[in-house]
Design brief:
The structure is a single chain. With 1449 residues, this protein is of the alpha+beta class. It is 15% helix and 34% strand. The protein has 21 helices and 64 strands. Strands 22, 23, 24, 25, 26, 27, 28, 29, 30, 31 and 32 form an 11-stranded mixed sheet that branches. Strand 29 and strand 30 form a beta hairpin. The chain starts with a strand and ends with a strand. About 19% of the residues have low confidence.
């Protein structure tokens, strides 16, 4: 499909911006002065125009000019050169009120001319409408704003400014008297009382978008600048937000010039030569001098109407024959004046490689093409000039240009061939250059649209066109080596055939265009005029034959070419535009020192963005083979039987399960015994590990609100009697390992039980538990017991545990154990820049199946004694209206203690009263005074005690009565003082008791079951018991229980809970300093107070990583005492206080936690002590209630120290959740929950994610495939002596020395040697754990970030292997020892399953040859694969690498 685009119809939006963005350049002298002063960095400014004040209004207003408005016009001016430059900015028209004009506008600009002569001129203009609709502008005065202080460093003069207006117009600044004047204000006459208030200041936020706006352009915040997102405030430049730039690939570019390329260039050269001969008098020896075409170039850039977003890319066009894609002869690059010949094939200009452009989705962004020719003209007195003569000058000329806006219309152009009409002649163009135009070309540039390429029309219209294809760079796939490198082999063969005789005057230059053509630097005239030099003479290394028994494939020469290109042997004066990239030449050294603004690139983090699915089902349940089932059932696993001894009914996990809540409620067996039997594990061969891995495993999971389960070690036991097939491995039966390390041979498998009955469930919790079983998918992690590394994860659906009235059910699940691996491309291959490899390479997420877990689940119904049934099975009321109870009884007397108030029993109150009175006598009893004879009728107990004491002293000491009397007086005063201390405390306790009694009388209790993130709505009925109106203040002692003051939110929850109560607008009065919202109640009025409880916080306590030797699942007691990862139980009070501050009613809410459903579980690995930044892709949601179908998505995190947010995007764009997690030391693990809400008021989370972050020590390693590389790690000892062993995630690619158990003393430092020998190129991530073998705990964990490169290939071969038959194929390769002494070599392959060697190790003498025997494994399906053969020495250093391409056919 060919789509033809005309610039006049497809670039309207861009042209509108381009037409109004024309500006006057600054004086060249000022630019040169700024460069000489090393002032090249552009600075951004913000000019805020506040108001203009005049002493008296103009006469037009007093004469009835009501339509008179005023406008400010702002222009940049250079005082030294008396030059206005830039673009004049005009403010909005404002009227004058009270001798003041309020503009309140801000404008922005950036400039590198930070000179004292650069000023801003502001002119006040009055606008008076004319009868024809136009406006008459009349200058009312002007002023000058100094930007920079007269200092060498040219610091900007920031701050508030008040400027006086001067008479006249800004043209006064062009008067000769003002040219060298130091102070212009002394020569200008000021307008009395007229001044302008403004603020000038730096605006660093504008730096991020300087590439979208030229220098010295004054714009306002509401100006349309393509590339910047619109701001809801209307000022997009205050804090500019850039549109996301996405990569696109432009390829298959061809240019057709009319009537043909030969005739077009012939006519062009005739005109240029005629012009050269007309401008000077040719002598008799100058008749043969002609102008030649040196080069054909194309400039491609992205333009937003204001400027180019980046410097346009410059590529060299080649001559292509019409109908073929073969390259024309290189000698045609320098074309001279030729005559029209009858050639059969017409030629076009084309680009073999592709260009990468960065575009944003904006209707005014355009791709600009400019066709430019480089001509060489002769200089000097020579009479005969050859094409290789250096005495020729080069000059450039633009011939055609075109503009195409890709996003002005719907993007149906992806993948289609586009045809653009090129323009010529005297028209404004983005490059600002003169464009070639002739009489003939002007006639051909008719605006009549072209329907399709090659379509015949009635009027013969010929037009210069450009054809290309544009595709998204995100879907770009790397070209195969066969396709992209075979053309190089053809060029080499063409070079062998091309003549190199001096008569041609030019040696052949092999094309050096890479598959991707990045931006090339501009060429100077000296570079264009220089001749090329290329080493010739003897044959190049890659032109020699290969001494092997296998015929080399066409890849051989291509691999050699790539190797030589990296060695830097390819040199050319023209090809360096696409190969030898260098830093931008237009940036001065001072600007490079100051630093350029970095541009955001499409970056993929270490762990690629996660795209979760709807439910946590990483693997689907598969059906085992009959041999596997027979093997499992012969192992002797215990059966799951019901309470009567019958085998439980078997459910098929591949079929749906009907669920009827009524049947579950009416089930006679209300108790449930849930059984999980871990039976076996099937190993699947995985790269990097052995066939017997894993050997020991353990599981971690969490069921309902029971504590997290960490199982004991389980050994994978294989039966020696059963024959194992390679294509169908049998499951390994799990057997528990005792604490002494022996295998328990008594009962195979691991069985865990959870009893859920009336002793475990709380009142009303039965419904939550059934909902949990019906919806939840339990996540299970499988770990290696030796290395404590994660093998993988899986999930099983719990809905097969629903009995539906049956006595017992069971189901056998066979689920895949999956893990994710992150592999990046080789940066040397992925980079389009051959001279400078890119630091950013795309990541690919692979899902790897590590094995299959066989697990059996069952649910056994248990009978419950009806007499002992608790209200756990009784469904609670669904009413959300809470009505306070009516108090009908009074207080019957007794103590006012809080304990007795709760009981309100007369007998208990009397007894408590007696105990309390006796308690008041404790201080007296401690002084030795008996108080057990106190009569109830005594009121003054203190007087009674004094009388008794006086009688005793008189009886014992009559002789010393006076002394006794004095002693009695002292004791009496002491006791009196003590009684005075007792009475206030007694009065205080009585007052507190009365208050507690009254509080309990007006307190309403309510029990609430809440889960994480879910909002629980309730309405409290508040009644005014008084006969006067009251303003009640509502105060909650916990922010998680709040009052719904928003009427819209209140109505949403009422509709959600179907609560039929009235809704009142503007019900509450909110104040900043008030303890809560206030509500007005009429006398005896009752209203409904809407309350909402919602908690986002929970417990993040985690068990220590490692297997457990204790039995798990002890029943309901352990589960009840240890609630995990759920909302904390609490009691919240809401007090309704009247105007006098006393409580009118109290609402006490008891919150009991319930588990939440986890939809996704993620495990992330990240370097320690640094922030983890992760993006998780949200699934698409569409809200049919919204007019545009957009869904309001919000997120919350259970950890307040973690930043969790999402951004609203345009419809159709994917939305991500961004996480920023603070780092922790290795080997800590951080766990938290993320709740995703799809409703505006966050009633209940649509999804809950559980995220684990493992923090490890990061080690970066750079290596080559097939070659061993050593890296040192440091292990530090802790407080105690430990027995340590190190494990790696890929034992066949990573070896740790020492590889056995070693002793780590306290505070010691142990050096570990890690030997890395990877077999796959790209970015890889491996893990190494140092494990305490006695305690089974991780001491330190490392994250190895490998940057693996492909080796340099020595030879390449190709072999065909027949499909089927089961025989395979054998081949031989001859290898010669390049050394003079005998050496021993090792043979390695990156596909050992497909290629085997006759001998993995051989020894040959110096200079002798050895035949390597290869045996290729058979294949059952056709295809092809490339296998690398490594010849290594004894230190595993690669001597040579062969590439063998195997075709299975």
């Amino acid at each position: 499909m060919v789509k033809t685009e005309d610039m006049s119809t497809t670039a309207d939006s861009w042209r509108e911006v381009f037409e109004r963005s024309r500006l006057v350049p600054p004086p060249r002298q000022a630019v040169r002065l700024a460069v000489d002063s090393h002032i090249t960095q552009s600075h951004a400014f913000q000019l805020c125009l506040s108001r203009l004040t005049v002493a008296q209004p103009p006469q037009e207003i007093s004469e009835g000019g009501q339509d008179l408005t005023y406008q400010l016009r702002v222009t940049l001016f250079d005082k030294s050169h008396q030059h206005f430059f830039g673009k004049t900015w005009k403010s909005q028209a404002q009227r004058m009120k009270n001798n003041k004009i309020f503009f309140d506008q801000g404008l922005y600009f950036h400039t590198s001319l930070r000179l004292s002569s650069t000023v801003v001129v502001l002119e006040l203009v009055s606008l008076l409408p004319r009868p024809d609709g136009s406006q008459q502008a009349l200058g009312r005065g002007f002023t000058v704003l100094e930007l920079f202080i007269n200092r060498p460093e040219a610091q900007p003069a920031d701050g508030d400014r008040r400027l006086n207006l001067h008479h006249g117009s800004p043209r006064n600044l062009l008067h000769p008297l003002l040219k060298d004047a130091v102070d212009c204000n002394s020569l200008l006459k000021a307008i009395e009382g007229a001044r302008l208030d403004c603020v000038i200041k730096n605006h660093p936020a504008l730096v991020s978008m300087m590439h979208l706006l030229p220098e010295n352009v004054l714009v306002s915040g509401d100006e349309d600048i393509p590339g910047i997102t619109a701001s809801p405030t209307g000022d997009a430049l205050l804090r500019p937000q850039l549109l996301k730039m996405l990569p696109f690939n432009l390829n298959r570019l061809t240019i057709s010039l009319q009537p043909s390329l030969e005739k077009f260039e012939s006519r062009l050269l005739q005109l240029i030569n005629a012009d050269c001969h007309n401008t000077k008098q040719p002598g008799p020896d100058e008749t043969l001098r002609t102008v030649a075409i040196q080069e054909r170039r194309l400039h491609v850039g992205v333009h937003n109407g204001w400027c180019f977003l980046e410097k346009p890319q410059v590529v060299v066009l080649e001559l292509l024959s019409s109908g073929t894609r073969s390259r024309a002869d290189s000698t045609s690059k320098q074309s001279t004046l030729i005559k029209d010949s009858s050639s059969t094939l017409s030629q076009t200009l084309g680009l073999r490689s592709s260009l990468e452009l960065r575009l944003a989705n904006h209707h005014a962004l355009a791709i600009v093409f400019q066709l430019e020719y480089v001509f060489s003209a002769p200089i000097g007195p020579e009479t005969m000039l050859s094409t290789t003569s250096t005495s020729r000058a080069a000059f450039l000329q633009c011939l055609r240009w075109g503009v195409w806006c890709p996003f002005q219309q719907p993007a149906d152009w992806i993948g289609a061939e586009l045809q653009l009409v090129l323009q010529g002649g005297a028209k404004p163009n983005p490059h600002g250059v003169m464009v070639y135009s002739t009489e003939m070309s002007a006639k051909t540039q008719s605006p009549v649209p072209l329907s399709a390429a090659g379509t015949a029309q009635e009027i013969s219209v010929v037009r210069d066109t450009l054809k290309f294809r544009l595709s998204s760079g995100l879907d770009k796939k790397e070209l195969s080596p066969k396709v992209s490198l075979r053309s190089k082999q053809e060029d080499v063969s063409r070079q062998r055939r091309s003549p190199t005789s001096p008569s041609k005057g030019r040696k052949y230059i092999p094309p050096a265009s890479p598959p991707e053509s990045p931006q090339g630097p501009g060429l100077s005239l000296s570079q264009l005029a220089a001749t090329s030099h290329y080493p010739t003479g003897k044959a190049l290394p890659w032109q020699q034959s290969f001494p092997s028994l296998l015929h080399p494939s066409p890849l051989a020469s291509s691999h050699q070419l790539s190797h030589v290109a990296q060695a830097g042997l390819v040199v050319s004066n023209i090809a360096h535009m696409e190969v030898a990239l260098q830093p931008r030449g237009d940036v001065s050294p001072s600007a490079q020192d100051e630093g350029d603004q970095l541009e955001e690139l499409p970056f993929t983090p270490v762990h690629a963005p996660i795209i979760p699915v709807g439910m946590n089902e990483p693997s689907s349940c598969t059906v085992s083979s009959r041999s596997s089932l027979a093997h499992l059932y012969s192992a002797g696993f215990p059966d799951i039987v019901d309470h009567s001894g019958q085998v439980a009914e078997v459910l098929d996990p591949t079929e749906p399960v009907p669920f009827d809540p009524q049947r579950e409620e009416t089930d006679l067996l209300q108790g449930n015994l849930l059984v999980f039997q871990f039976l076996a594990f099937t190993r699947i061969p995985t790269a990097g590990v052995g066939a017997d891995w894993p050997d020991n495993i353990y599981f971690t999971f969490q069921f309902y609100r029971c504590p997290p389960v960490t199982s004991q070690q389980l050994k994978l036991v294989t039966s020696g009697k059963v024959q194992h097939k390679a294509g169908n491995p049998l499951p390994c039966v799990l057997a528990s390992i005792n604490k002494d390390g022996t295998v328990n041979s008594g009962s195979p498998g691991l069985q865990l039980q959870f009893r859920v009955d009336e002793g475990f469930l709380r009142p009303g919790e039965k419904r939550w538990f059934l909902r949990y079983l019906a919806l939840h998918t339990m996540h299970i992690d499988i770990w290696d017991s030796n290395s404590l590394l994660l093998i993988g994860s899986t999930a099983i659906e719990l809905k097969y545990l629903l009995r539906q009235g049956k006595p017992a059910v069971q189901a056998l699940h066979e689920v895949e154990v999956l893990t994710t691996d992150y592999v990046g491309e080789d940066p040397l291959l992925a980079s389009a820049n051959l001279g400078r490899p890119s630091a950013i390479s795309p990541m690919t997420v692979h899902t790897i199946n590590k094995g299959q877990l066989h697990i059996r689940t069952g649910n056994i119904g248990c009978p419950v004694d009806p007499s002992k049934r608790r209200p756990a099975d009784i469904m609670p009321t669904t009413s959300h209206i809470i009505t306070p109870r009516e108090v009908t009884g009074g207080f019957r007397g007794g103590s006012l203690s809080s304990r007795n108030i709760l009981q309100l029993n007369a007998r208990n109150a009397a007894q408590a009263h007696r105990l309390e009175m006796d308690g008041d006598l404790v201080p007296l009893y401690k002084r030795g005074i008996r108080a057990d004879i106190i009569m109830p009728g005594e009121h003054d107990s203190g007087t009674r005690k004094l009388n008794c004491m006086a009688a005793v002293h008189q009886r014992e000491g009559k002789k010393d009565a006076q002394a006794a009397k004095v002693m009695d007086q002292k004791k009496q005063s002491l006791l009196t003082r003590e009684l005075h201390q007792i009475k206030p405390s007694e009065d205080h306790s009585k007052a507190e008791g009365i208050t507690n009694m009254l509080s309990q009388a007006i307190t309403t209790h309510h029990l609430l079951y809440a889960s994480l993130g879910s909002a629980e709505y309730m309405e409290f009925v508040l009644k005014n018991p008084f006969n006067v109106p009251q303003t009640v203040t509502i105060h909650s002692d916990d922010p998680e229980l709040s009052v719904l003051t928003n009427a819209e939110e209140w109505g949403y929850f009422k509709a959600l809970t179907k609560t039929p109560t009235p809704l009142e607008e503007n019900m509450f009065h909110l104040e900043e300093d008030a303890p809560g919202p206030r509500v007005y109640l009429r006398p005896k009025e009752s209203i409904h107070i809407p309350l909402k409880y919602q908690s986002f916080l929970c417990d993040h306590t985690m068990a220590i990583q490692g297997p457990s030797f204790l039995p798990t699942g002890k029943g309901s007691r352990m589960a009840r005492k240890n609630l995990s990862n759920i909302v904390a139980a609490k009691i919240i009070k809401v007090t309704f206080k009247a105007e006098d501050g006393k409580p009118m009613a109290i609402f006490q809410l008891s919150v009991e936690p319930t588990p939440h459903v986890v939809y996704q579980t993620f495990r992330l690995y990240h370097p320690e002590l640094c922030f983890l930044k992760k993006a998780i892709r949200l699934p698409p949601w569409h809200d049919p209630t919204e007019p545009d179908g957009r869904t309001h998505i919000s997120v919350r995190c259970s950890d307040p120290n973690i930043i969790c947010q999402t951004r609203m995007l345009v419809p159709g764009e994917p939305q991500d959740v961004y996480l920023k997690v603070p780092g922790s030391p290795s080997p800590n693990i951080k766990m938290f929950f993320v709740m995703v809400f799809t409703d505006k008021w966050m009633a209940a989370p649509s999804q809950v994610w559980q995220i684990y972050v493992h923090f490890l020590e990061r080690v970066d390693v750079s290596c080559v495939t097939g070659q061993r590389n050593c890296q040192s790690l440091v292990l530090r000892g802790r407080q105690a002596v430990r027995k340590v062993k190190c494990f790696s995630s890929h034992p066949q690619e990573i070896e740790v020395d020492p590889d056995s158990v070693f002793l780590l003393p306290p505070a010691a430092v142990q050096e570990l040697q890690v030997k890395v020998q990877p077999w796959q190129a790209g970015s890889r991530f491996f893990y190494v754990n140092a494990v305490d073998v006695e305690q089974r705990r991780i001491i330190t964990a490392w994250l190895l970030c490998l940057n693996v490169h492909r080796p340099v290939l020595s030879k390449a071969f190709e072999v065909c292997v027949p499909v089927g038959g089961g025989r395979g194929s054998s081949r031989k390769i001859t290898y010669t020892n390049p050394y003079t002494r005998s050496r021993t070599f090792l043979l390695r392959s990156d596909h050992p399953d497909l290629l085997q060697f006759k001998e993995d190790k051989f020894q040959i003498s110096g200079g002798e040859s050895y035949t390597i025997g290869l045996r290729f494994a058979p294949s059952q399906s056709p295809g092809s694969v490339e296998i690398l053969v490594y010849v290594n020495n004894l230190e595993e250093k690669t001597e040579e690498t062969f590439c063998v391409k195997v075709n299975y056919s």
